[in-house]
Amino acid sequence: MTTTSQLTEKCAVAGVWGSAVAAEKTRDMLEALQHRGQDATGVVTLNGGMSRYVELGLVADAYPQAVLEELVGDIAIGHNRYATSSHAHDLEHVQPFADEDAQWALAHNGNLSVTKPLVEFLNEKNVAIDDLNDSGMMHAAIGWYLRAGSSMEDAVAKSYPLFVGAFSCVAICEGKLLAFRDGHGIRPLSYGKLPGGGYAVASETRALDALGAVEQADIGPGELLVVDENGARTVAIVEPTPKLDIFELVYFARGDSRLCGRVVEDIRRDFGAQLARECPVEGEAIVVPVPRSAVSAAEGYAQVSGHVYADGIERANRLRTFIRPDQESRKMAVRQKLIPKPEVLGGKRVVLIEDSIVRGTTLGVLVAMLREAGASEVHVRISSPPVLYPNFYGINMPSQSELIAHGRTVNDVCEKIGADSLGYLSVEGMLQATGQPADTFDTSVFTGEYPIDIGDHQNEITR
Length: 463
Description:
There is one protein chain. Helix 4 packs across helix 5 and helix 5 packs across helix 6. The chain has two domains: 12-242, 4-Layer Sandwich (Glutamine Phosphoribosylpyrophosphate, subunit 1, domain 1); 263-460, Rossmann fold (3-Layer(aba) Sandwich), CATH 3.40.50.2020. It is globular and about 70 Å long. The strands form six sheets. Strands 3-2-4-1-10-9-11 form a seven-stranded antiparallel β-sheet. Strands 5-6-7-8-12-13 form a six-stranded antiparallel β-sheet. Strands 18-17-21-22-23 form a five-stranded parallel β-sheet, with helices on both faces. It contains 16 helices and 24 strands. By secondary structure, the protein is an alpha+beta fold. Strand 17 (286-289), helix 10 (295-305) and strand 18 (308-309) form a beta-alpha-beta unit.
């Protein structure tokens, strides 16, 4: 069996109901969500029959017009994926998962931190799980209830107690589009009405914006959304205890998406402003962001500090080094995609703003590159706290030993990345800057406080 420790994903899901070009609209949303997964992509449509198409690589390359024309149906779901194991290039594990006999399909964003209840249930029901990851087992459990005679809504509800971890899912069955989140809402999921009729669901609101969707709303923690010929309705499956992963605000979500009722880039700008208050750099300096996710934080830092903001680094492409599968490829990617500008940096004291330090790969290389470009000093400021603990809810942080801040002081990290000084935003300052109640976020990567049981993973961390 493929365990979740071997195959950990951070992905995107999307779905459309009631459009003659459902596959094309789903593709468009997946392209807007490309930042959440770049290894593989897939779409399943439903209209009397079922059609499924999966492909490795980027959305822009994966769906030629001939393929879209074959994906017939007015209901569709889609998925973008990245993986951190040898399965990254294995089509067998590319979602959505589909059951042609039962005419239903599922796509999952997140990660089940504990699979024991699910494994025991499937073993008891004699369902083969040898080649299934956590998402595949979720598909198998819901499918078992469907074959036992449950409606789709009931099958999802009955399966909920088996799913321990983070999940934001879309599914199609019985002419319906369904979407549901775990009771903590760790991963985002939203929906809206399409112009001219129909509905769309996506991991981020920016994908809904790409279709011109209106009356957008979040699917709440523990909620099931059902879309059919009667419209859209939500049902509470479990009692909600909101704990959105705050790393969505720090790094993962697009800046032009909306979370917590705010545009993400505005929240990041407030992170930077608070960082300037907590970790100032005295004397004349320029504020330079690591593009692109740190741009808003740098703007906030510059505004509060009074230092001049400067675009001192050019970014060559949009692919993210954080989700590259190995350390050497991340290092190579830094020099390929980030290009310091000597005409901006030469002879300057630089306050380099980055959204987070995970492994330290990007910053260690980049600080050296800034000095090569002529910067006289490089003071690094991070618009989030030190990442001290791994994430077991779907982010590529497989080992605590890989986290540069684990077991090191701030001065140790500063020396390791070669900076003149280093400062982090505090946990309290970060939470305050969101404008939301502090207890509505998952801050586990910073604090080690995991809102959902992580089971045997407790043995993988030290405090």
